[in-house]
UniProtKB/TrEMBL annotation:
InterPro entries noted in UniProt: DUF1825
Protein name, UniProt field: DUF1825 family protein
Highest rank taxon of the organism: Bacteria
Pfam family, one: DUF1825
Length: 106
């Protein structure tokens, strides 16, 4: 069975995509959130990013050709912006840390 033939993989990919879209849509109103709303949003983003990191690690560890091609496509795509997948995760983490710090100041 191929990596993407797994119902669990398909379900997790679908859920990650839906959660990401929802959080991005919600994030457009971030400036209007009260302090508690901002904390909840940051927590949800951190949780989603950790799920994404784990999902991508499964791709990297898989011997499935399609999974390996997906990893290579991501590396190529991010490489066009001059970053690696690890740098992408690091930048997202740094952004969330800045958001937390801003929240602490207010």
């Amino acid at each position: 069975m191929g990596f993407f033939d797994s119902e669990i993989v398909q379900q997790e990919a679908r859920q990650l995509f839906e959660d990401y879209q929802s959080l991005m849509q919600l994030g457009s109103s971030y400036g209007k959130f009260d302090r508690e709303g901002k904390k909840i949003y940051i927590d949800q983003m951190e949780s989603m990013m950790e799920r994404y990191r784990i999902f991508m690690k499964r791709f990297e560890l898989s011997e499935d050709f399609t999974a390996q091609m997906t990893v290579e496509q991501l590396k190529t795509h991010l490489g066009q912006f001059g970053i690696t997948p690890q740098q992408m995760f690091d930048q997202m983490h740094a952004t969330l840390e800045r958001m937390k710090a801003e929240l602490e100041k207010s």
